[in-house]
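Re: weekly structure request thread

Next one in the queue (408 aa):
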Amino acid sequence: MIETFQEFKETKNIDRTTLVSVLEESFRNVIAKIFGSDENFDVIVNPDKGDFEIHRNRVVVPDGEVMDENKEIELSEAQKIEPDYEVGEEVSEEVQFAKFGRRAILNLRQTLASKILELEHDSLYQKYKDKVHQVVSGEVYQIWKREVLLIDDEGNELHLPKQEQIPGDNYHKGETVRAVVKEVQNENNNPRIILSRTSPVFLERLLEAEVPEIQDGLITIKRVARIPGDRAKVAVESYDDRIDPVGACVGVKGSRVHGIVRELCNENIDVINYSANTQLFIQRALSPAKISSINLDQENHKAEVYLQPEEVSLAIGRGGMNIKLASMLTEYTIDVFRVLNEGEADEDIYLDEFSDEIDQWVIDAIKAIGLDTAKAVLNAPREMLIEKADLEEETVDQLLDVLRAEFE
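Done, posted below.
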């Protein structure tokens, strides 16, 4: 038992008081199974000596009047132990657990193992529950199709599902991987720690570790939007007018974000100044595009952004990435429109007039997103037509060809 106590203390992170309590409870469970009740038993565990004592307490009753052999003892039997016992007194005698037989010993062992496992699970759950949204490290132990299994420095299993991995991530057994604790599941008291490398919180924590001004509370990360492995936008705010929050986060020649970019598989990180002014914030979020004007629908969190034709592609970005990140960051649905030159609006034509060249269901799909005229469609970004109208690229291209031909 001494060796067992030492092992638990060193490898299981279970303190002495808790272990003594578990041992006592395990003994009581076995006693209750043997005698029907453990109420009249005293169990004393001594971890220093590595032994234990079990005492059964029974009340002395007149001979022939024993109703419960576990809790009562005849006077004549009690006097064999001590001659001066009298009726009504309590007899305490030590019980030798070894005499209960092999089955009882095995029962105790199984009960104790079950209780220890339960304690380990509770300890693991509490430990990682307090680490949710914190960065942890683990060694790659097993690589599967749907997840990677990591082991922390105490041998606990950490799970990194496929959907929480950055698309460019490539894992090798034995290497160390960093991720943020996304959640701790605890179904049937069996903790499962889920990690994430795609969460915006992961980027947030990496920035906090790299930028002393964030750690000191001089700069706050207000919002983070990510398309993992491709690009991210971070809005920051300074509480000290002397500190440029964007410059402090990026560092000299990008020195502070270089390590983070490498960690995130070369994910480009745009850092912008946060503003409580929604129009200004949207304008900054769509950088590097320069905006001509913005119409806001604050109730529905929608923004119509008007730009010069040469600025539209910058606002949308490759594959619509810039406008998508800007929408995620500002929490506004952003629609981009080209600014019409004077006189162009007078030449516009309603979409319904093209019904002989364009299928009606296509016209209806475009009108459903608020575009009624040919010029409105031509001024809208191609990516927006595909995504919002839920049309195939080929269909949109045919539509645009027909409309352009009308004005050429």
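The mean pLDDT is 88. DSSP finds 15 helices and 15 strands in the chain.
Next request, please.
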